[in-house]
């Protein structure tokens, strides 16, 4: 593949539909966005792996939702990987890229380098939050940390909270193209049964998933179940290099995997790194404090500072211009 073709598919999400079996999906490739996300912080390797997986899930899920403003994924656990958080901002106008940012909080002293990344989370919850903007009611869905991966948690969320059978196949890691430098690349496929699928196991015994939560197999029956199982078997044949390597375009991948299911592709959507932080927003967050309160936040040089957890931006402000006594402006 030429370098032009390779670049054309980087940081893109390609929507598709399998007409024969009422399944829709997304193919995603990330490189520049992921490198920017991870370069903001000096994460240990295991934390990088978790952030990469969360970022891929965010790109795939965000593009599958008719979003006016923001979708957030959050993981909180009692292990050394305490918080994983991502935000997806829908395009501001037609043709513009969506924006994604990601961040992790971890306890370095408790990290076990021999543990699997997912095991570093411990017990906790996986949440998806949708904010459609001013005047709209925010939505939040939560599922327990279970299943052995963040991907499994996302699949459980869709089965339990949305009652939509959903499957992800993701891979991410560092790679080096001939003559290039080492960088992060990630690729993934999302499958989701069309919403007309109806649940069939809403009973007191719960579902067949871990701790009784619903699983995709609980939501389908007859032909729909057979079609779903067939599509999942086909997806399971995908190889890592097909997901992230430069030699297979997403359209070619879909034909290789699902040619008998009559795949139909739509326009590819681009994504890029983007952060919504600003000095005005920092000032707004300080607007509830009095001048006396701000003295406790003032550094020896007479300034108040704040750092964005997502992008690392550093803000330095005069205390006299902050707080409710100054009438701070901003959103």
Walk me through the structure.
The chain is α+β, with helices and mostly antiparallel strands and 331 residues long. 26% of the residues lie in helices and 28% in strands. The strands form two sheets. Strands 1, 2, 3, 4, 5, 6, 7, 8, 9, 10 and 11 form an eleven-stranded mixed β-sheet that branches. A hairpin with a 6-residue loop joins strand 12 and strand 13. The chain starts with a helix and ends in a 14-residue tail after the last strand. Mean pLDDT is 85; it is low at 1-7.
Brief sketch in words of this structure:
With 331 residues, the chain is α+β, with helices and mostly antiparallel strands. The chain has helices at residues 3-9, 32-39, 45-63, 150-162, 222-235, 240-244, 250-258, 279-285, 291-295, and strands spanning 12-18, 23-30, 70-77, 81-89, 98-106, 124-131, 139-144, 166-175, 183-193, 263-265, 269-273, 304-307, 314-317.
Q: What labels would you give this structure?
A:
two-stranded antiparallel sheet, 11-stranded mixed beta sheet, 9 helices, about 30% strand, globular, alpha+beta, about 325 residues, 13 strands
**What is the 3D form?**
globular
Poorly predicted runs: 1-7
Could you state the order of secondary-structure elements as H and E? HEEHHEEEEEHEEHHHEEHHEE
The proportion of residues forming helix, as a percent range, comes to 25-40%
Distance between the termini: 46 Å
Provide mean pLDDT, rounded: 85
Largest sheet: 11 strands, mixed
Q: What gyration radius follows from the Cα positions, in whole Å?
A: 22 Å
- Number of distinct beta strands: 13
Summed up, the helix count is 9
Helix vs. strand class? alpha+beta
């Amino acid at each position: 593949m030429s370098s032009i073709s390779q670049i054309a598919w980087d940081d893109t999400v390609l929507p598709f539909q399998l007409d024969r079996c009422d399944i829709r999906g997304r193919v995603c490739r990330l490189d520049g966005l992921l490198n920017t996300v991870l370069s903001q912080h000096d994460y240990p390797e295991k934390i990088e792996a978790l952030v990469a997986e969360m970022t891929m899930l965010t790109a795939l899920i965000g593009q599958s939702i008719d979003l006016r403003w923001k979708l957030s994924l959050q993981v909180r656990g009692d292990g050394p990987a305490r918080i994983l958080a991502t935000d997806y901002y829908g395009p501001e106008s037609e043709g513009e890229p969506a924006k994604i940012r990601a961040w992790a909080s971890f306890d370095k002293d408790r990290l076990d380098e021999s543990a699997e990344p997912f095991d570093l989370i411990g017990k906790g919850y996986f949440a998806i939050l949708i904010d459609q903007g001013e005047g709209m009611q925010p939505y939040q869905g939560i599922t327990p940390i279970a299943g052995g991966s963040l991907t499994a948690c996302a699949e459980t969320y869709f089965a339990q909270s949305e009652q939509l059978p959903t499957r992800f196949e993701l891979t991410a890691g560092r790679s080096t193209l001939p003559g290039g430098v080492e960088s992060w690349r990630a690729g993934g496929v999302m499958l989701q049964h069309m919403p007309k699928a109806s649940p069939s196991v809403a009973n007191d015994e719960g579902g067949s998933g871990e701790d009784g939560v619903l699983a995709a197999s609980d939501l389908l029956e007859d032909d729909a179940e057979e079609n779903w199982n067939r599509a999942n078997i086909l997806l399971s044949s995908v190889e890592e290099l097909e997901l992230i390597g430069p030699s297979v375009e997403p359209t070619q991948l879909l034909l290789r995997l699902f040619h008998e299911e009559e795949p139909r592709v739509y326009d590819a959507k681009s994504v890029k790194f983007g952060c919504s932080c600003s000095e005005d927003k920092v000032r707004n967050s300080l607007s509830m404090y009095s001048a006396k309160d701000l003295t406790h936040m003032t550094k020896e040089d007479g300034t108040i500072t704040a750092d964005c957890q997502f992008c690392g931006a550093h803000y330095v402000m005069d205390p006299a211009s902050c707080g409710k006594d100054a009438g701070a402006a901003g959103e």
